[in-house]
Specification:
Strand order of the largest sheet of chain B: 23-25-24-26-27-28-29
Shape of chain A: globular
Largest sheet of chain B: 7 strands, mixed
CATH superfamily of the largest domain in chain A: ATP-grasp fold, B domain
Number of domains of chain B: 3
Strand content of chain B: 15-25%
Strand content of chain A: 15-25%
Shape of chain B: elongated
Oligomer: heterodimer
Structural class of chain A: alpha+beta
Radius of gyration of chain B: 36 Å
Number of helices of chain A: 12
CATH class of the largest domain in chain B: Alpha Beta
Distance between the termini of chain A: 15 Å
Largest interface: A-B, 52 and 36 residues
Order of helices and strands of chain A: HHHHEHEEEEHEHEEEEEHEEHHHH
CATH topology of the largest domain in chain A: D-amino Acid Aminotransferase, Chain A, domain 1
Distance between the termini of chain B: 116 Å
Helix content of chain A: 25-40%
Number of domains of chain A: 2
Largest sheet of chain A: 7 strands, antiparallel
Number of helices of chain B: 29
Number of strands of chain B: 29
Helix content of chain B: 40-55%
Number of strands of chain A: 13
Chain lengths: ~325, ~750
């Protein structure tokens, strides 16, 4: 058993803290205009789509109240969809319609509502009811993603996503975020979601935390988390690497959802990814960052950067292995 | 007096003077006799026997005195009650303080009686009720120490034609069985006498002359009526007073009778005398036709009651015997007796509440003071200490005023103290020594009001005791010293006991012992500020002192400057806590402003107000969520809600006398609204737990800042050394570069350093 001072030394050596993250990465590597871009979901999607990256299909964007008749028409064309604020945070204001029953729409939660309810929700979004900092917002109509069969088994309450942290264009650490009943269907660790550390070379689960504590079984359905292996893993790593070319942030995270029909798609880009990913992986970021030379990564292709990330991880693991 | 019928005989046996006539009437007769006079007074609960005590004591008219003197008396009223049944009662009119006389203390002693008194304006009615049957007999003792002044009342110059009694004064024009205003003889005589008079004074003089000089003074009965006195051309002291009253009233001058005692040393008295008070303008002017005092009262006249009333009313079931034992006493004996203040005196001692805080005033005045000392303390001074200070002051012939009250927050303490000082400027201006003591550095600010008022205090010595660093005391003391131009400012830079400070001042005032020397005995080491000390300060310090002096002169409160200067320091503390410890809050501004608010309300109330506002506000905000309003509209509503809560808290504070609540509007509304909005949004993003945690952290951080500032006297330090702000900026710069882990991150990531490793490789 390590003494407390040994533990403290190890934490200091390995863990990336908020102070260092803010100064060394966010302040230096993330220019403000790009941060503002990724805070706007619709524009981010546009940029990613331009670079050929898969994103959930946009069915419509509504920036003004006068656009709402168009929303009514668009809603009629689809059986399931998601209506969300372009600049919302934490999943607030997201309305998920899973299907139809007669002329009524049925929400993922089972409640049924009328088309005019959807329109009035969009009006609220535009008026800024869910916008936390800005007063006006844009409503976004998206195709609904359905959880892939493999991962869906681990998240009865919502859609899981894979967070990949990309630094200097190199995917360096990843975790799977599983919604729980406690997190109210949202894959947010603060809200009570499960964070599953993913081995970067293989896409296998290596560790998991729930409320900052290690767990082995999903808290809702007792599925063994260690058996998880992320499908489309190499695709996801490549997507992460390529999105750094689309949006030139030096330090960011992408949230990838694996849709049952479409495969992986980038749901969101986050310019301030949290540090809990280290807990989920049971590894600090600093030993990895020490091996990551920005100059050597600069000229590489996306695929080469994925390889570089995997090399760095493997080299670090070899060194720390007993 | 065991039997009513024996009363006159026993009374006349006692004295060689004109016999004191006592007559006891039945209830019916009393009601008839005193109907008019009682118009203002509630009828006695179960009136039985009334004892009229007025008789005569004649004298020639006296000139107004050239020199006004004050004499001190002890008047002991004892009422012997031989046998009594439970429920029987004795009511007696008791002397009150007024411009003429001051009841310094009173002592009550009556075994087997319940006592209470009722203020029946303008009289004080003492009521003794028999508590238990008593066959042996007992005694009621009511002793007062009284200071009586020669009192000359300036007679307002009012033309007789202009005397228009107000509606309230009209009852002093009414007739009564003994004061027959409507009697044709009295009316005719009065008119005849005043026919040449133009002013009220001339008219009264004519009437007074008639009653004082042309009515022979004879021993008479207590119930001698006005018409009889006029008819006979002779009357007792009280009879003359009734006649004068009747004549005054008949010509439209409001007048009333006053019953009292003429005091003589070492005598036993039972006869009262009576004189007249006329209402002229807003003054009651005394006229005593029996004693010959026109417009003034001599020092040996003790007024017992006003109106034509019986002195004593008692149940028919008991017999009683009473007398007044009169002693002339020395001033210090009068004042030194353990005082149990009369109702009137008590009001003066309790003093007025200042913004919800009760300020107690204790004072002692002597006739010819060698010095006067004003002491202001921010704590509750025990009666014991106050007594001792007052006793020592009297002994040393020092006038002393002690103002003290406990205060909640430092900010208020400063405000209260300053208000206390402003309210007592006259007192302070006349003081030789001014002493302010607080348990923190508020004392340094209390007297700045004097500078604001541009008062020059010449050779006054000022003692400022409190907890502050010596260097701070020097600078802020110098601000005061420069502004009020005091003789000497002594700084005692640790909280000292009031008694020790007083002894230091007393020794200095009485024996000229240097304060420092006496202070050492009390383990106090004062720093004395004078011109030389000021000159020794550096140019920068002088510049600061000059700047703050200018600010105070311009009525900028230094508390405001304090709050401004302390703001960057609070911000620096928050930078430290956030980057080194890692307590997350709602932004940086919220805890800063909330901490400022705490500084004005005090910690406990600040936390309570914060919790109340945020919880009610968040509840309202959650309801608003359904309304789906615009952010700006939401904030507007929240500000309204917060404002309503604050107004409510202010009213609660006012109702219960809670000072910090009454000043709750200082609590920054907008920031509170913002905290509520932050709470709601983080609740949406991260859940209720997280939102509560962040709110709690914001509160905690504000409290940490509060404690850091309050316990270190940081505000005064910054005011004295504003250059310290550069230090705050350096801290900000240094921590802005700090990349190390936050303290709480070690705890959070502790699991990562545990031996157990990943599940697989």
């Amino acid at each position: 058993m390590a003494t407390l001072s040994e533990k403290v030394r190890r934490i200091r050596r390995e863990v990336l803290g908020l102070n260092r993250r803010n100064q060394q990465f966010m302040a230096h590597l993330n220019p403000a205009p790009l941060v503002a871009l990724v805070d706007h979901k619709a524009r981010t999607k546009d940029v990613l789509a331009e670079h050929g990256l898969p994103v959930p299909e946009t069915l419509g964007r509504y920036a003004h109240q006068r656009d709402l008749p168009r929303l009514t028409r668009n809603v009629d064309q689809h059986n399931d969809f998601v209506l969300k604020p372009a600049r919302g945070a934490g999943g607030e204001g997201v309305m998920v319609i899973a299907g139809r029953s007669n002329d009524r729409l049925v929400k993922a939660s089972g409640a049924s509502l009328h088309v005019r309810d959807v329109v009035s929700h969009a009006a609220d979004i535009i008026a800024g009811a869910f916008s936390l900092s800005q007063s006006r917002d844009e409503a976004l109509l998206e195709r609904r993603l359905v959880a892939d069969r493999v991962l869906g088994a681990f998240s009865p309450g919502g859609i899981p996503d894979v967070r990949v942290v990309v630094i200097h264009g190199v995917p360096i650490m990843a975790m799977l975020r599983l919604p729980t009943v406690a997190s109210d269907g949202r894959a947010n660790l603060h809200m009570g979601g499960v964070g599953v550390g993913i081995d970067l070379p293989t896409g296998r689960a290596v560790y998991a935390v729930w409320r900052d504590q290690e767990i082995a079984l999903h808290p809702d359905n007792q599925q063994p988390l260690a058996s998880i292996r992320i499908p489309f893993w190499s695709d996801i790593l490549l997507m992460a690497s390529r999105s750094a070319d689309a949006i030139a942030l030096g330090y960011f995270g992408i949230d990838v959802v694996i849709d049952a029909r479409l495969g992986p798609a980038i749901l969101e880009v986050n310019a301030r990814p949290g540090l809990s990913i280290q807990l989920a992986n049971h590894r600090g970021l600093r030993p990895l960052l020490a091996r990551l030379n920005p100059q050597s990564a600069a000229g590489l292709s996306p695929a080469a950067r994925v390889s570089l990330g995997i090399e760095i991880v493997e080299a670090t693991e070899r060194e720390t292995a007993p | 007096m065991t039997d009513p019928s024996l009363a006159p005989a026993s009374a006349s046996k006692r004295s060689s003077r004109p016999a004191a006539a006592l007559k006891l009437l039945t209830l019916l007769a009393a009601l008839l006799g005193a109907a008019a006079a009682l118009a203002q007074v509630d009828p006695p609960p179960t009136a039985g026997v009334e004892v009229f005590t007025g008789a005569g004591e004649g004298a020639a008219p006296h000139d107004k005195p050239a020199k006004l003197t004050t004499t001190y008396w002890r008047v002991e009223l004892s009422v012997k009650v031989p046998k009594s049944q439970p429920g029987a009662h004795v009511q007696m009119l008791l002397p009150l303080s007024d411009d003429h006389q001051e009841i310094v203390s009173r002592r009550l002693d009556a075994d087997g009686f319940r006592y209470h008194d009722e203020l029946v304006p303008p009289n004080l009615l003492g009521i003794w009720t028999v508590a238990a049957a008593d066959r042996i007999g007992t005694q009621i003792d009511y002793d007062v120490n009284v200071a009586i002044h020669d009192t000359v009342v300036e007679i307002p110059k009012v033309a007789l034609a202009d005397l228009k009694p107000s509606d309230e004064e009209r009852i002093f024009l009414q007739a009564s069985p003994l004061v027959q205003t409507q009697d044709p003889d009295i009316r005719r005589k009065a008119r005849e006498l005043i026919q040449d008079a133009h002013t009220v004074e001339e008219a009264i003089w004519a009437l007074f002359q008639q009653t004082a000089a042309f009515v022979r003074a004879v021993p008479g009965e207590a119930k001698e009526d006005a018409a009889a006195v006029l008819r006979k051309g002779s009357g007792s002291n009280t009879g003359k007073a009734r006649l004068l009253t009747a004549m005054m009233r008949s010509v439209g001058i409001p007048a009333r009778l006053v019953g009292g005692l003429k005091l003589e040393d070492s005598t036993k008295k039972r006869a009262t005398i009576a004189w007249v008070e006329a209402r002229i303008g807003t003054a009651w002017v005394p006229f005593d036709p029996g004693g010959g005092y026109f417009g003034w009262l001599p020092t040996q006249y003790l007024a017992l009651y006003r109106q034509d009333l019986p002195l004593i009313v008692h149940s028919a079931s008991i017999n009683l015997e009473y007398d007044f034992l009169v002693h002339r006493i020395r001033r210090d004996t009068a004042v030194g007796a353990a005082p149990e203040p009369t109702p009137a005196a008590k009001q003066r001692a309790a003093a007025a509440p200042v913004a919800g805080q009760l300020v107690r005033t204790t004072s002692s005045y002597v006739e010819r003071p060698v010095a006067s000392v004003v002491m202001i303390a921010d704590e509750d001074v025990s009666d014991e200490v106050a007594e001792r200070i007052l006793a020592e002051a009297r002994e040393a012939e020092i006038n002393v005023v002690l103002l003290h009250a406990p205060f909640e927050s430092r900010y208020f303490r400063e405000q209260y103290l300053q208000r206390l000082v402003s309210n007592n400027l006259a007192l302070i201006r006349g003081a030789h020594v001014l002493l302010v003591t607080t348990h923190d550095d508020a004392s340094l600010y209390a007297l700045l009001t004097l500078g604001e008022k541009e008062m020059q205090l010449g050779d006054m010595r000022i003692v400022i005791a409190g907890k502050y660093p010596d260097s701070v005391g020097r600078v802020l003391g110098a601000v005061l010293y420069r502004m009020v131009d005091a003789g000497e400012v002594a700084l005692v830079n640790k909280p000292a006991r009031l008694l020790g400070l007083w002894e230091m001042v007393r020794a200095n005032v009485i024996n000229g012992v240097p304060m420092a020397e006496e202070a050492r005995k009390w383990n106090i080491t004062p720093t004395v500020l004078d011109q030389r000390v000021y000159e020794d300060l550096g140019w920068w310090r002088k510049l600061v002192i000059g700047a703050w002096s200018r600010a105070v002169r311009a009525q900028v409160p230094l508390q405001a400057l304090n709050l401004i200067l302390v703001l960057p320091v609070i911000a620096a503390i928050i930078v430290i806590v956030r980057t080194l410890i890692g307590i997350e809050t709602f932004g940086t501004f919220s805890p800063v402003i909330v901490a400022l608010a705490f500084l004005t309300t005090g910690l406990q109330w600040g936390l309570a107000i914060f919790a109340v506002i945020v919880s009610i506000g968040a509840a309202v905000r959650l309801l608003l969520q359904r309304a789906r309003l615009h952010l700006v509209a939401r904030l507007g509503i929240l500000i309204a809600v917060v404002a309503a809560i604050m107004a409510g808290l202010t009213v609660v504070g006012a109702s219960f006398g809670i000072g910090p609540l009454m000043n709750v509007s200082i609590f920054p509304m907008v920031i509170m609204s913002n905290v509520i909005e932050n709470f709601t949004s983080s609740r949406a993003q991260f859940g209720t737990r997280e939102a509560v945690r962040l709110t709690f952290n914001t509160m905690l951080l504000a409290a940490i800042c509060y404690v850091a500032i309050e316990t270190t006297g940081l505000q005064s330090l910054l005011l004295s050394f504003p250059e310290l702000l550069i230090g705050a900026i350096l801290i900000d710069v240094g921590l802005g570069k700090w990349r190390g882990l936050r303290l709480l991150e070690y705890r959070r990531f502790l699991g990562l350093a545990e031996k157990s490793d990943r599940w697989q490789r």
